[in-house]
Amino acid sequence: MLRVKNLSVYYDKAIALDNVSIDVEEGEAVCVLGANGAGKTTLLNAIFNVIPKKGKIFFNDIDITDLATHKIVKMGIVYVPDKRTIFNELSVYENLEISAWEIIKNKGKKHFVKNLDAVFEHFTNLEEKQSLKAGYLSGGEQQMLSIAQGLIRAPKMFVMDEPTAGLSPKLMNAVFDIVYFMKKQGITVLIVEQNVNKTLMATDRAYIMEVGKIKESGNSKDFLQSDSIKKAYLGG
Amino acid sequence: MIYVLVAIGFNVIYSTTKIVNFAQGEFLMLGGIIEFILLKYSIPIGISLLISSIVVSIVAIFIHKFLISNTKDANELSLVIMTIGISILIKGVIAVSVDKDAHPIKHFLPFKSVSLSGMTFSSQYIVVMLTALILVFLFYFYLKNTLNGKIMQAVSMNTLAASLFGVNVNMEQMKAFAISGFIGALAGATIAPISFVQYDMGVMFGLKGFAACVVGGFGNNTGALVGGLIIGIAESLSAGYISSSYKDLVAFLIMIIVLFVKPSGLFSSKDVERV
Predict the structure, then answer these.
(1) What residues make up the domain containing B11?
(2) Rounded to whole angstroms, how far apart are CA atoms B268 and A89?
(3) Element (H, E) at B180
């Protein structure tokens, strides 16, 4: 579904991403693991054309390498970056309305409300606080709102950058529950994480990155059992 | 009230692009000039207002499309400087192609002045007031109650997020320029009977609208409303009680005081951010 070929990114002259290639098949959940500074966020930002890069990117065999960000996401991919995608001064409801504006325009308000109800099933907290300004939510709730904004777009593929960073263990589990739910729904998932064990458990395949390069790739299950790999790249 | 419109014009562009558009005053002047030309050909006031606003919107779109969004490796500062250049360019073009004289424009209402509890003032003030009120109301309604307006707000709050939700940010910025041009031109065309039209009429209005923005807090529309009113009222009071030759001074004095006391403006929005 998503094919990244020989992607390189330079910041000034320093190389941040060195000839990285990854593949994500339809319906799969894939993770990219690695320490801070390994280039995981750079990889995602390059895929969504937020930063300049070299290489080729295909989504469903369509070349999206040079497509503007807003056109890439129109193809049914959602990207929740590590910086949250919420609009502080607007209410929770309006935040969801904006993320789903195309659904409202193309399919009507009714369709939006249907999606909204489905999303609120997983985010009961947000339902209670829908008229509150998003800026007043707690950090965890804001993260949930970001994910909810993505889900309401009814994507084919969901890309997340460290969704559990800074969250309490309880909220962390809630995030992984959503990953499991997406898999069940047949949504393709690409997730970048530092939380090694939980991420490996929730995904099918894993790529391990170190200083801008892919060092290892394989089944998540195998990595979960292999202590040597965990020790070598992922700090235990 | 006219400063409120100029201030809102500044805000619309600033909040979506983070550019302070120093050609805002020229939008106002163009509105006045185009109206003056149309009226010369005895086109009715309503239609000439509409045409001049639309023409200036188109000019604003052109400025965005060909100058602002095409600038290579642009940062905000270079774009702000570019708007100063654009402002000089527009003034120059008008000075050469029309002329440098001040032209009077007929009052919109059939009577020239109004007396209210002993005070007499030009009937055009009523037109300016009504236009400003209607525009402010419409603009607020657009931002708060329509999906398009909310999307525009979203762009100003979190540009990356908006583009990740499929919003064409460049298009929204162009829209902001168009709206700003429209509001600016209407402001210029309605104030014209009071101020006369001249190629450099926009300079003072632009600077005072800028002062109103600073007083109210850049990017905040309630601030623009209050800031514009403060500057306008303070000016009239100083003209009435001290001397009209000091009225320009008062506007900028207020701006400087606000910059000293609360540099972010009276209504600066506290950015709530949690990690």
Answers:
(1) 2-110+121-201
(2) 13
(3) helix B169-195
Verify whether the Cβ–Cβ distance B154 to A86 is below 8 Å. no
- In 3D space, the residue among B15, B147, B32 whose CA is nearest the CA of residue B91 turns out to be B32
8-state DSSP, A79: E
CB-closest option in B147, B158, B269 to A87: B158
Class of domain A1-76+155-236 as given by CATH: alpha beta
Q: Is the pTM of this model over 0.90?
A: no
Nearest CA in chain B to A88: B272
- B275: nearest CA partner in chain A: A139
Minimum CA–CA partner of A79 in chain B: B164
> Would you give the DSSP letter of residue B4?
H
The size of the A-B interface in CB pairs under 8 A is: 84
How far apart are the C-alpha atoms of B198 and B216, rounded to whole Å? 28
Residue of B144, B160, B274 to mutate when probing chain A, most A C-beta within 10 A: B274
pLDDT digits (tens, 9 = 90+) for B168-191: 999 999 999 999 999 999 999 999
Radius of gyration of chain A (CA): 18
Q: Look at residue B244 and tell me if it is in a domain.
A: no
Q: How many domains, chain B?
A: 1
Buried b (16+ CB within 10 A) or exposed e, B39-53: beeeeebeebbbbbb
Distances (CA, A) of B256 to A28, B209, B215, B231: 60, 14, 9, 12
pLDDT one-digit tens code per residue, A102-118 = 999 999 999 999 999 99
User: Distance between CA atoms of B57 and B59, rounded to whole angstroms?
Assistant: 5
- DSSP H helical ranges for chain A: 40-47, 69-74, 92-99, 101-107, 109-122, 124-128, 139-151, 169-184, 196-202, 220-225, 227-234
Structural domain includes residue B166? yes
